[in-house]
């Protein structure tokens, strides 16, 4: 299939060049589990008629000129080259099983089956680059597991862009003609502006002062962490070269309703506040299990979080993305913020983790840290080149403990090529950190993929359980308080 339109080679964006460097060569993995067996021909037919193969990034080859500068060059798209079919069943060790073996689950996704898919993706996350002989994406279809794994290079776009691209090829399960919804419809309520007196003006000025102070403080912390200061070493710390270590992948599952119960118990709290509280509690539980009485309370572990810088947080209009509209820009449009998490032994009130997370996140919201981190990377790339921008980004990851992201997924169940989807999970290829966490919500549930260096974190399933138990304990604390 030919890519529509003809024009000269297009240079890569600064972010695209960054993600092609050897130390930051990142591939996004999206795992879709179907409820029914996958029809390979239907998948290929859907791809051929989809907007994805018409998008310039998805039908262009990566080429380098005589000076070594990268460009996108339009090319033919052969769907058969991009669809990789695995007909044999895998076990948890990524070994092929006898075809007669069965797995069982009420939903068709047994523990052994999920573990096998997770291990397959974990192996792909280390030293499995995409071929530059074709556009930088492919789909692995694991037929016995009713599962498809989309592999898309980060140079093509960030999580919001790629999720919007994927959702443009899907339809709602309850309405075959409707695109998935990713953001609830806003209420018609509005404020009439009454009461805007000098108190309101004072609030604006006070907010501006806080923004300036927090921005200066957090941007300085960001630069220092990128160059000089690193987290204290613990049993979950990574470091230089760890991105090449073998990986394991586990999944933590949450109900969004449980998160909302906790969210409502603390005024003005968001789902992200609850998530960071759960991560703080879960990591504390895990460290206390691995190294009992060896760590002091208040030990800081720093997380790197990705923040979408587009005005719209949910599903992006793909037609606007492809046109390059300013408010819905395709590509990589995100900044980074540092999220400190503190070790704390289990106490009487698990909601303290959420309250502390909320205070920290509120300060971050009052700053322009994410915006400045984006501009700093862009400036370093423009002035010093991709080598030094890669070094700056790599040092930041080596000096911190984990990476985390949270993407809003479809509100309702969806179908792809007519097959109802039971779950959607995302993660990326390995980083120098020993732990990376990526959460995506789907139809009232949220699943967080936890990718670990297995020689450092040998039991990611237990770590996932620590996160799940942390949320349940918070929910029980809220219910117990309401009964009183």
TrEMBL record:
Pathway: Lipid metabolism; Glycerolipid metabolism; triacylglycerol biosynthesis. It is found in: Cell membrane; Endoplasmic reticulum membrane. One of its GO terms (molecular function) is diacylglycerol O-acyltransferase activity. Residues 330-475 form the O-acyltransferase WSD1 C-terminal domain. The keyword Nucleotide-binding does not apply. It comes from the Eukaryota. It catalyses: an acyl-CoA + a 1,2-diacyl-sn-glycerol = a triacyl-sn-glycerol + CoA; a long chain fatty alcohol + a fatty acyl-CoA = a long-chain alcohol wax ester + CoA. SUPFAM superfamilies: CoA-dependent acyltransferases. In the N-terminal section; belongs to the long-chain O-acyltransferase family. This is O-acyltransferase WSD1. It comes from Theobroma cacao (Cacao).
